[in-house]
Specification:
Elements lengths: L1 H5 L2 H20 L2 E6 L4 H5 L7 E3 L8 H11 L5 E5 L3 H11 L4 E4 L12 H13 L3 E4 L14 H9 L3 E13 L7 E13 L10 H23 L2
Parallel strand pairs: 1-7, 2-5, 2-6, 3-4, 3-5
Antiparallel strand pairs: 6-7
Helix pairs in contact: 2-5, 6-7, 7-8
Length: about 230
C-alpha cells in the first residue's frame, strides 16, 4: 500500500518539487569554481556557431543545473536538453529539471534504442536540437549502468551531428552519496564545488566505435581533476 502511494502521480510530483527546491537552494548557496577548456567554451555558449553534446557521468546529474545557469547567463537564448530514461526515475528527473528551464528528451543512450525504448526517436530529436543550436546533455552510463561505462549512443550522436562532445565533471565538498548503482552525489548547502569542462572531442562520421573509449577516458579525467581541486 505504501509503495503504491509513493508511486502515485501527486506524491511523485510533490517529491520532485521538494527535491528541486532543495537542489536549487544548495547549489546557489555554494561557492563554485569553473575550469573550462578554452576550445570548449565557444561550444558551450553557442559562440562558435554550433553547440555541443555535454557528457556527464550519471552520478553527477544533480549538479547539471549549474552548467545550465552559467550558459544561459552568457547566452539567454541557449537551452539545455537532457536525455532521460522513460521509467519512473526518469520521469521524476524530468519533473525536476523542467523547473530550471531544462528540456527533456525521453529515450536511451544505447545505439538504436537497444535496452531502452524510444532510443531511435530520441536520437532523431537530439539531432534536431543540435541543428537548431541547442545544447544536449547525455549521461553515457545511464540509465542503469554499469557506472562509468559509456554506452554507444553518445559517440553515435557526435558522429551523425558533427557536433563535439564536451566531457564535463563536477564535485562538491561536503557531499552525500546515495546507495544507488551510480552512488549519485548530492550537494550540501553552503559548501564549495568545482565544475570542469574538458576539451571538445570531435567524432568522424565512421569513427563512433573508436571514439567511445576516448570519450570515457576524457570523462574520467575531468572527474579526477574536479575531485582533486575541489577537496581540501
Amino acid at each position: 500500500m505504501l509503495k503504491r502511494v509513493l508511486r502515485s502521480g501527486p506524491v511523485q510530483e510533490a517529491m520532485a518539487r521538494a527535491l528541486g527546491l532543495y537542489l536549487t537552494f544548495a547549489l546557489r548557496t555554494m561557492r563554485w569554481q569553473l575550469q573550462a577548456d578554452p576550445a570548449s567554451y565557444p561550444h558551450l555558449t553557442g559562440a562558435s556557431g554550433r553547440t555541443a553534446i555535454v557528457a556527464f557521468w550519471h552520478e553527477t546529474l544533480p549538479l547539471t543545473p549549474l552548467l545550465c545557469w552559467r550558459a544561459q547567463r552568457i547566452n539567454p537564448g541557449l537551452r539545455l536538453h537532457v536525455l532521460i530514461s522513460r521509467n519512473r526515475d526518469g520521469r521524476m528527473i524530468g519533473s525536476i529539471v523542467r523547473r530550471w528551464g531544462v528540456g527533456v528528451v525521453a529515450g536511451s543512450s544505447d545505439r538504436g534504442g537497444k535496452g531502452g525504448k524510444g532510443g531511435a526517436a530520441a536520437l532523431r530529436s537530439m539531432l534536431g536540437l543540435l541543428r537548431d543550436g541547442q545544447l544536449v546533455v547525455i549521461t553515457p552510463d545511464g540509465p542503469r549502468g554499469p557506472a562509468r561505462t559509456a554506452q554507444p549512443g553518445v559517440a553515435l550522436l557526435a558522429a551523425l551531428s558533427g557536433v563535439p562532445v564536451v566531457p564535463v565533471a563536477a564535485t562538491c565538498w561536503p557531499e552525500r552519496r546515495l546507495g544507488s548503482w551510480d552512488r549519485m552525489l548530492f550537494p550540501l548547502p553552503f559548501g564549495r564545488g568545482r565544475l570542469v569542462c574538458g576539451p571538445p572531442i570531435f567524432v568522424g562520421r565512421r569513427d563512433a566505435d573508436a571514439a567511445l573509449p576516448v570519450i570515457a577516458a576524457a570523462l574520467d579525467e575531468a572527474a579526477a581533476q574536479a575531485r582533486v581541486r575541489a577537496h581540501p
